[in-house]
Amino acid sequence: MSRGLFTGAKLKDKPPLLPRGRVSHWSRERLDKLTTPELRALLDNAERLNETEVAALCRELLDARPRGRGPSRRAKHSGVTREGLVTRGKAFELHGVKPRNRMWSRGGVRADGAVVLALRVEDVQRAGATSQCLLWAPNTANDRPWSDSPAGQERLEHCRLALERGAAEGLLAYGGAATPAASGAIGGKTERLDAQTVLKLEVERRDEEYWARWL
Length: 215
Fold this sequence. Notes:
Blueprint lengths: L27 H5 L3 H13 L3 H12 L21 E2 L1 H7 L12 E3 L5 E6 L4 E3 L2 E7 L13 H16 L2 E7 L17 E3 L4 E8 L2 E6 L1
Parallel strand pairs: 3-6
Antiparallel strand pairs: 1-7, 2-3, 4-5, 5-9, 6-7, 6-8, 8-9
């Protein structure tokens, strides 16, 4: 990331940006398209990974927004970390969902029938005021092996349920591994979810793919 993005900033005393995977690929333009809760959560993740330049950009953009920073800490006894990021299991628990498998489940069904899904923030596409995210697509050319894993098949089941209900709830996930493990697990131990921001999803089918849209 170019240092020219930090106009007027003194960077010589800052530690170098560490090549920590996909977090280091955020550009200023892409960051500016994120909502304030998304930007806060990404700041927390960048600070944790010592992504100093990404964190500086996040702080700069948040400072320019009304109430951009928000509260800095949450109560420790609640299990909620800074900026409301928690483990996937804790996030599901807070929303009344008992996942089928604590390692690879990326969604669940609450007692009232509502479908709750974890969405990786890197997969979110924004167009104006609308955001969308691919939830599931078939493994037609062995390019999506995750879709055939137990985790992928569970996601397909949840997509069908959400389509039938006409709506679902989404929780944004930050960090963690993007490549599925052999079990189909995505994210790993470093993934954290924003349990405080609930996205109201409209699930739709496009040919054989399932997508979520929200405002």
